[in-house]
Amino acid sequence: MAVNGAGGTPGGLGRFFLGLAMMVAGGYLFLNSIRVYHFFSLGYALHSFGPVRLTTGMTLIPLCLGLVMIFYNARTILGWLLFLGSLLAVCVGVIASIRFSLAGMSLFDLLVILTLLLGGLGLFLGSLRSQGSTT
């Protein structure tokens, strides 16, 4: 009984795990070098309707009104719509205000990250195809 490697193909098991380890290491280094900033505040404009800006602070008004309606009568559909719609708007505002940037690094650091990511991907995908006949 022949032992199959990665993807059911003969051989390639070493390349599979080496490629997987390289991709994980490169992915970790890449994600570790990304800096996340946010600009969310109660005055952050979510939408603009001409000269009128809808800020995140304004979305808290229907949220609070919806909460009052829900606590007064939990079966009120309008209260649930106000609460859930405002909560969704606040969540969208938080996500929309996030900014990503790549941390300052040397060219060597960037080349190591790209080599690990792309070289690992090449080894990983190459291990899934047949390596020829083994006797």
TrEMBL record:
Keywords: Membrane, Transmembrane, Transmembrane helix
Parts of the chain that traverse the membrane: 12-31, 52-72, 78-98, 110-128
Domain of life of the organism encoding this protein: Bacteria
Protein name in UniProt: Uncharacterized protein
